[in-house]
Amino acid sequence: MIKVAYKENYSHSLWENHPFPMEKYELLWRQILYQGIIEKDQYFEPKAISEEDILLCHSSEYWNKLNQLQLSDKEVKKIGFPLSRDLVNRELDITGGTLELSLWALENACGLNIAGGTHHAFSDHGEGYCLLNDHAIAIRALQNRRLIKRALIVDLDVHQGNGSAEIFANDASVFTLSIHGERNYPTKKEKSDLDIALADGIEDAEYMDVLHNTLPKLIETEKPDIIFYLAGADVLAGDRFGRLALSMQGAYQRDEYVLSICQKLNIPVVVTMGGGYSKSLARIIDAHSQTFYLASQLFD
């Protein structure tokens, strides 16, 4: 059975009219309940991540400034959200949810966070709507608890996971894969263990060829104890911040392929939603909903 993390503050109204569609989280939650994809006993409200776990991944200087709301105007601008106590608390809950789901997945195969995938957060600063790197913190926490040795990040958001790449640079215990748009944010890319930069306008067949030729070999070589999958919906054609051209069916095939491999090989997987900036909010919700549907079918 899958487990799902969601809390009301995922969709805080502080950011109305912001390019990032914050309301998508509440709408997604309502959609997967309405469609019967999950039952209420499959979800939990996450607890805030601990400072101890945060400091496994982020510098104390950055964390203290963030927690005390003392980031400079330049640092806040880089993040892209107005800094507030509510925003920090939201990030703590999202990150706590990803860690709790990873503990669940180790015993029960699969957990999904309705938010998360904050892959632009570096060890010493935040950017790109990301304050704390939830995948990185969860991995470090699992390693610190001696529950895993090796982890694989499969980042299929349209934007490179630059923060994750920086945090795990020169760390052989964590492999970072990022398949992203070559001309997308960030302008200055970090070096993941494997970066595959895609040309503008790539459609379903070519995208899936890349995935087929990459993921099985990588899993066979790395033999991860757990996979963190960032299932960004910003790969869809028409996304305001993406430059790829996957159809809804293509996004479905992508998720099905990744999750099926995890299921067949009995590799625990944690799934986070990442980006999605289509002009149609319904299109974003539909894309994310099918990720939950696939997980519910594969890990029933």
Automatic annotation (TrEMBL):
Q: Does the keyword NADP apply?
A: no
Q: Is Hydrolase there in the keyword field?
A: yes
Ranges for domain Histone deacetylase come to 18-289
Listed under GO biological process in this entry are: epigenetic regulation of gene expression
Q: Which InterPro entries match?
A: HDAC_classIV, HDACs, His_deacetylse_dom, His_deacetylse_dom_sf, Ureohydrolase_dom_sf
One Pfam match, given by its short name, reads Hist_deacetyl
**Record-level Gene Ontology MF annotations:** histone deacetylase activity; hydrolase activity
Keywords attached to this Swiss-Prot or TrEMBL record, sorted alphabetically, are: Hydrolase
Please name the Gene3D superfamilies in this protein's record. Answer: Histone deacetylase domain
**Coiled-coil segments:** none
The family assignment reads: Belongs to the histone deacetylase family.
Would you tell me the protein name for this molecule? Histone deacetylase superfamily protein
| Origin species | Lentisphaera araneosa HTCC2155
Which classification does the entry list for the species? Bacteria, Pseudomonadati, Lentisphaerota, Lentisphaeria, Lentisphaerales
